[in-house]
Specification:
alpha/beta, 2 domains, two-stranded parallel ribbon, 4 helices, about 30% helix
């Protein structure tokens, strides 16, 4: 039997604090040691007016693409419209369908 894929390796996880648990568990399950190093912090925009103005116009777009679960979480309050929504990251899709 071969050793786990990450046996003896340290893996730096740069996800924001509070979002590292799942990735760290996967690394441990593969035999690695996660090193938690939150390199960024997700914050709301200081001025939401431009975003809210765009959300009010989403029905004129054919497609909205969200690149992360964080982006999807920030626009959950978006009014329903007939627009197709796509996500780029598997975690976004699993979290928000």
């Amino acid at each position: 039997m071969s050793p786990p894929a990450l046996a003896g390796r340290r893996v730096v996880v740069t996800r924001p604090a509070g979002q590292t648990g799942h990735m760290a568990a996967l690394i441990r399950a593969a035999g690695g040691e996660p090193v938690l190093f939150p390199a960024l912090e997700i914050l709301d925009a200081g001025d939401l007016q431009p975003v809210l103005a765009l959300i009010d116009r989403l029905d004129v777009f054919d497609l909205a693409i969200f690149i992360s679960a964080n982006a999807v979480n920030r626009v959950q309050y978006c009014p329903c419209c007939a627009m197709q929504v796509s996500v780029i990251w598997v975690a976004s899709m699993m979290t928000h369908g």
